[in-house]
Design a protein that fits this description.
Blueprint (H helix, E strand, L loop, with lengths): L9 H14 L3 E5 L5 H16 L5 E3 L16 E2 L3 H5 L5 E5 L11 H7 L3 E5 L10 E4 L6 H11 L5 H15 L9 H12 L4 H9 L4 H12 L2 E3 L4 E6 L1 H7 L9 H6 L6 E8 L3 E8 L4 H6 L4 E2 L3 E6 L7 H13 L7
Helix pairs in contact: 2-5, 2-6, 5-6, 6-7, 6-8
């Protein structure tokens, strides 16, 4: 029961992608770097759907965090190291939950350019439509919700696929609480439950299970947190040394910006985490301010209330630059529905 057609082109795009998968000799599916629950759930759901029509898909991910190990379809996952990528011959390539080509794993990007045709399934508002076929809908809660429209249209939702899709939707909606979750999202979730997904189990594994490293790095981030502008802005900076000291992985940082935003009075939160080669990952969250515009100023993007960027050439944490941009967004009245 897909949502009503967004425009006249949407059914044709769904049909083109289905035909491309059906006709392809090789089907590759890639999620963004440091894949989250939505990228993993949507990618594995598509792989299982392709397998149902006789294909042998390859999912290119740079690792699956332990918290998502329960999602079915991981037999299709292949690493993205030099040796693995060198063995692949071009075919159909589908980028999932990837706002722009630079968000694909480093060695997947040049391979994407060699493939034909290419497709993009994404929900980020700044996606430039970099595929030959583009299923991009910023009104969807997640890539998994768009994947539901594709797979349900062609009768390709098993109990395992339902589990993968609802895990992705739960992750990107924060358990159906974010503003991106509307009536259509809930209708699709209900359909996935009817098809075999078990909500309490998936919800607990996706959102309520924490690693020891995640707990330790959250403690460090909160110890280092700065509240400024009358408590309207909360931010923290984590170094690679902090990560090593607390035994944390990049995937363990996912919930920190949301936690800081939950502090009473906070309107915007951001986390800067150090990465190799003088690079910092910026993650922004907001209750009303358009942080996608802030992220865009650093070459990133995302959603109005949740966005991010990768800031290169930063020998020191660029916290003041980010704070200045956040203040400009707040002061400029750049608020949702304002």
């Amino acid at each position: 029961m897909p949502r009503p057609n967004k425009n006249k082109e949407w059914p044709g795009k769904l049909g083109r992608l289905h035909k491309a998968v059906r006709d392809a000799e090789r089907v590759y599916i890639a999620g963004h770097v440091n894949p989250d629950g939505d990228a993993i759930g949507a990618s594995l759901a598509l792989a299982m759907g392709a397998a149902m029509i006789g294909k042998q898909p390859v999912v290119l991910l740079d690792g699956v965090p332990e918290r998502f190990a329960f999602i079915p379809g991981q037999e299709y996952v292949r690493g993205v190291g030099a040796d693995e990528m060198a063995e692949l011959a071009p075919g159909l390539m589908i980028a999932v939950d990837t706002a722009y080509i630079g968000r694909l794993p480093r060695l997947v990007r040049p391979f994407f350019d060699k493939c034909s045709p290419t497709a993009v399934i994404d929900h980020h508002m700044n996606n430039p439509r970099f595929g030959d076929i583009n299923l991009v809908d910023q009104e969807s809660s997640s890539a998994s919700e768009i994947m539901y429209e594709l797979l349900s249209r062609y009768g390709l939702i098993s109990a395992d696929i339902a589990t993968a899709l609802i895990a992705g939707i739960i992750f990107d909606t924060g358990g159906f609480k974010h503003s991106c979750c509307g009536p259509e999202t809930l209708r699709k979730a209900a359909d996935l439950l009817e098809r075999g997904a078990v909500l309490p189990d998936i919800y607990a594994k996706t959102l309520e299970t924490r690693s020891a490293g995640e707990a330790r790095i959250l403690s460090k981030a909160l110890d280092a947190m700065v509240m400024t502008d009358g408590g309207r802005v909360a931010y923290s900076v984590l170094s690679e040394a902090d990560m090593a000291e607390r035994g944390a992985l990049y995937a363990d940082l996912d919930g920190i910006p949301e936690y800081m935003l939950s502090i009473r009075g906070a309107e915007v939160s951001f986390l800067l985490s150090e990465r190799p080669n003088y690079t910092y990952k910026l993650s922004l969250r907001s209750k009303a301010v358009d942080v996608c515009a802030v992220a865009a100023g650093f070459g990133g993007g995302g959603h109005i209330l949740a966005a991010g960027a990768v800031i290169g050439g930063a020998k020191e944490p660029p916290a003041e630059r980010v704070l200045e941009a956040v203040r400009a967004a707040i002061g400029g009245g750049n608020a949702v529905g304002g």
